[in-house]
């Protein structure tokens, strides 16, 4: 990953939860490359899920404890593998905890002042691994810090360069939190910022019996989209960030994925909440779908996470 004009407000502490799966370690490689580029400290955490070891009558306490100990050993090996990925000179902190995975991740992030969580979107199941896919989605929905989810591809990852950043926007105050992060990332890596507004065809469907008035409705929604993407352009211009804007009709999550593919986007940045109704699609649910389906990493930002330095 190339580093250009790195801002001191960028992520200084990166948390990488791992369950030892290939998906988790794929995301970890992305995280350590990011840390190498920005000088961030990497925290590697593995959580042994206590709920997978019930004190049931079919198992003795001794057998349960043996299973837990084996799980703790496996978790220790998992964090060590990620730590070994870090470039020489990178500060790395490792820890194994026992508890509820998503809750433990959030608590650790708070305890250590984490700026960014980087997670894989799929993982193993069973007694020795928690389901990092569902855990990642819960962390995305509830974490107080940005979460970068990385979907594993069939091929090994190339150098994690960031040249094109996509920020879907619905024009709401909530989505502006994501815009601020997207602009900061684009400025940091001298990347082009793409601002996209999607007019949801499903919302329009209810108005197709309006006859000629449907054209006016589409025009109005397009104008809303142009205003929303124009606000992104204005914010980007304040940071001398190159920007491209688009207003498209379609199913929001699918359109975002298609746009990312067609424009060779390296990173998608989205808010986790937004307005609803015909004038706004539900950015929260759209974000969760994009997290599940995007072929490129997705950085999710909760409202209020806009205190980056310029």
Features:
310 residues; alpha/beta; Rossmann fold; ten-stranded mixed sheet; 9 helices; 20% strand; disordered N terminus
Mind telling me the CATH superfamily name of the largest domain? HUPs
Secondary-structure element order, N to C: EHEHEHEHEEHEHHEHEHE
Largest sheet: 10 strands, mixed
Q: Specify Rg, calculated over alpha carbons.
A: 21 Å
Number of domains: 2
Residue-averaged pLDDT, rounded? 82
Percentage of residues assigned to helices: 40-55%
Describe the structure.
The protein has 310 residues and is an alpha/beta fold. The chain has 2 domains: 13-150, Rossmann fold; 164-301, HUPs (Rossmann fold, 3-Layer(aba) Sandwich), CATH 3.40.50. It has 9 helices and 10 strands. A 10-stranded mixed sheet has the order 3-2-1-4-5-10-9-6-7-8, sandwiched between helices. The two termini are 21 Å apart. The model is unreliable at 1-8, 123-131 and 274-283 (pLDDT under 50).
Short description:
By secondary structure, the chain is an alpha/beta fold. The chain contains nine helices and ten strands.
């Amino acid at each position: 990953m190339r580093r250009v004009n790195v801002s001191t407000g960028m992520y200084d502490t990166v948390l990488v939860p791992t369950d030892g799966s290939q998906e988790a370690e794929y995301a970890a490689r992305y995280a350590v490359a990011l840390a190498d580029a920005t000088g961030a400290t990497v925290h590697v955490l593995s959580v042994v899920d206590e709920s997978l070891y019930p004190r049931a009558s079919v198992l003795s306490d001794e057998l349960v404890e043996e299973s837990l100990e084996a799980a703790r050993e496996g978790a220790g090996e998992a964090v060590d593998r990620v730590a070994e990925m870090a470039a020489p000179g990178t500060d790395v902190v490792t820890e194994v905890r026992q508890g509820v995975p998503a809750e433990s991740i959030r608590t650790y992030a708070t305890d250590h002042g984490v700026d960014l969580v980087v997670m894989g979107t799929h993982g193993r199941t069973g007694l020795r691994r928690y389901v990092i896919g569902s855990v990642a989605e819960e962390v995305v929905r509830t974490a107080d810090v940005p979460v970068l989810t990385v979907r594993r591809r069939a091929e090994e990852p190339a150098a994690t360069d960031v040249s094109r950043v996509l920020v879907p926007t619905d024009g709401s105050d909530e989505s502006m939190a994501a815009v601020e992060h997207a602009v900061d990332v684009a400025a940091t890596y001298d990347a082009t910022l793409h601002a996209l507004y999607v007019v949801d065809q499903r919302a329009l469907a209810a108005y197709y019996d309006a006859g000629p008035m449907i054209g006016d409705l589409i025009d109005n929604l397009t104008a809303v989209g142009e205003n929303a993407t124009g606000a992104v352009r204005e914010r980007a211009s304040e940071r001398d960030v190159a920007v491209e804007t688009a207003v498209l009709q379609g199913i929001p999550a699918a359109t975002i994925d298609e746009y990312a593919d067609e424009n060779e986007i390296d990173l998608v940045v989205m808010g986790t909440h937004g307005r609803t109704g015909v004038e706004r699609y539900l950015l929260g649910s759209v974000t969760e779908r994009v997290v599940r389906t995007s072929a490129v990493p997705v950085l999710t930002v909760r409202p209020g996470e806009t205190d980056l330095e310029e």
